[in-house]
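ingest -> validate -> predict -> emit
validate: passed (alphabet ok, no gaps, 251 aa)
predict: started
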Amino acid sequence: MLTTIVAVAVLVAVAVLVLLVGHARRRGVAGRDADAARSTLDSPARQWRARGDKAVARIEELTDSRPELSGVRADAEAVAAELRETAGRVAVLDEAIASVPSPELAAGRDRLVASAESGAEEDRAELLDAARSVDQALEADRRRRASRDALLAKMAGTVAGLEAAVLEVREWVEPVEGSTLTDAALTDATDPARYVSNTASPDSAALSRPAPPARSGASAELAERLQGLREGLVEVRRLPEHGSPPAQGPP
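emit:
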């Protein structure tokens, strides 16, 4: 009789957990940004989002007076928006994970199995059913944790890409130390439309220097990489809740 009572209590607990997880998900759908804002200050998702926002703000600052780089700026802003969306999804998963006492459930599951093995025959099927219900709850929790970690891994890679983009844009728009070129001359030198033949004989130093990159081609390549970062965030949010992502260091 006692084992039956224990089994019923475990089933009730599992049902309550399912309701809590469902409630957490409904709240997440209603406002991912609000969930992200409520996450703790040391949340990895919040830190990755802050670093991404900082990188995009720097790109906006560098390209503000550069109309030819408006596409790069717009793509960087789109990546920042997807980072915010992804941080919101992580916050939803964090809330659902926090609502499931996995260690306690695992310990209760072990007790149920032990009771089934040592208890009366007539109670065994009921106890094993309860243990299977707990296994399902634990598996759902494992999938949520794997999804959360996959999102964090993608955020880490995205932020690294944004910070590399800052360095690349800065090389385009800030004068090189020791350079005597004016800003207009630098733009002319990197604009393929302005390449013209020159009858003057170049000096040996000029011959040894590589030709400057074409600004339009380089910015197009960067814009394409930024679009790839944005699409990567969208894609990882569409993945089912399973799998184990690669380990990532702290932000």
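The chain has one domain: 2-171+211-238.
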